[in-house]
Structures
1.
Amino acid sequence: MSLIKLIEFKLLGDDRGHLTVLEGHKNIPFNIKRVYYLTETQAGVPRGFHAHKELEQVAVCVSGKCRMILDNGRHKEEIWLDSVSKAIRIEKMVWHEMHDFSSDCVLLVLANEYYDEADYIRSYSDFIEQVRNA
Ligand code: TYD
């Protein structure tokens, strides 16, 4: 089964421009409890490099693009987030990395829980061990 779970947002609007709507339990598959965004990222400085034990997230580049790598401990897949209408689910226990940010990148992330450092797995070897013991 593919690790890449895309969500296509409908672009609303008219000749004044686009408008995109994100709604919990509608086009976002959970109740949105937290929103954060990455800005001033750099092309040669990747981010992420962790998995979450329970957190569910959806990510979309609302400006620019970046390359997302998803890894469930058995295989890896990558996708370019390069459209305001193309979001990806980052499910629990999926190691994720973001690379090759464009200079105009704004990566918006929606999450179903508040920030909790205890939910992070930041060591790849710990992640692999937890996947194997699951
Ligand atoms: P981190 O999740 O490591 O960033 P990334 O995955 O983009 O590389 O977060 C960077 C720092 O910000 C880290 O010290 C934790 C903190 N942080 C919060 O305080 N609240 C949050 O909601 C998030 C996502 C991060």
2.
Amino acid sequence: MRNKVLKKRGISFIILTFFLFSAFSQNPIIKDQFTADPTARVFEGKMYMYTSHDIPSPIERLKEWFCMEDYHVFSSDNLVDWHDHGVIVSQENVPWVAAESYSMWAPDCVYKDGKYYFYFPSTPGGEVRRGFAIGVAISDTPYGPFTIEEKPIEGISGIDPCVLIDSNGESYIYWSGRGMSVAKLKDNMLELDSEPMQIEGLPEGFKEGPFVFKRNDIYYYTFPWVREETETLAYAIGDNPMGPFEFQGIIMEESPTGCWTNHHSIVEYENQWYLFYHHNDYSPDFDKNRSARIDSLFFNADGTIQQVIPTLRGVGITPANSIIHLDRYSAVSPEGTSIDYVNMDNLFDGWKLILNKKEAWTSYNRVDFGKTKLSEITARVSSKTGGTLSLSLNEPSGKILAELNVPADSSWKEITVPLKTVPEGVRDIKASLNSEGSVEIDWISFK
Ligand code: FUB
């Protein structure tokens, strides 16, 4: 029924049949608020993520548009557990921003000579009161407090700042709006050191959100690009930070949920590259309320980027004794599985997995059982028909971890049974329906 509602609501839920792809935090990664335009940076050995903060608009003018009044920063050392450091910059504290413009769009943050520079676009107030300018806030730490510059950067009219500090210490700022532009930054990181110039070598079509990084002496100019209907993520490469660049192709195809924008960053952490991006997971009907996601990204030997397929499983290792959401699966059987929201009145309550055909299954990779002997599993389940759920290791041994008989009762209940096998280490697991009927699973957890 709820699936019908979801389809009616315009979600194609291609993800229902995205079977047999695997990945290694669960997506979306921030589960209590909207987080858009994620720029990830590694500072002090941790991953920091600077996001725009979509909110349902408090003013009529923006009810159907982007509405953002402040920025949060999040940090994590395992890409699974994210700490929200709270608001770092808010529109009412920026002297040059128009009151109630709610246009604190995609930001960036970089570190130079002991200071963190946070770059953000917004609408200037005063006589200008239109378009976008780019402001800077400075801090001694990645998470603030930030001191906001009185005025935006002179010479830039646009959005989506991205700053590259090259290996020789020279800095460049990229932005979009009236084309895709670049200029050198002075050492103070607050002023342009060259005239803005257009980036050459990019394909025709709407582009924004540049993110530029360097790897093995190749400069990667990556950007959201509308090739057909909504934004893909695409890239070009070059041997000069100011271009020209040579177009290479797509990093991520259009969002399967129909989210018109995508906005990303690409960063290496502990020897693995990651793509941070956004979809509208918690807002299927309104794609201006978005949520940050992460998936792994891989390079080919020649430096080209392998296309990234968005996953629900995301990245990172899930502790066995945490709440494990099987609806964020690594793979599912081609038939008999679906996902739906647990609570249509509050989508931030997340999703549930529905197995509704005998032998339907879902797998979930990289669960850490550690060395502590666990003895039971608890599952939060419901079933109108009753059914038997089997949990096993998703490996050739196929060892059964537990079997749960779920009674016919459509209310949610937590069922605990002893483990038949007690695994150790990081393992992939699988849940299957061993009976006719239909069983819904909110989460499982090992104790
Ligand atoms: O979040 C507002 C705007 O949507 C960003 O600045 C663009 O890149 C797009 O994601």
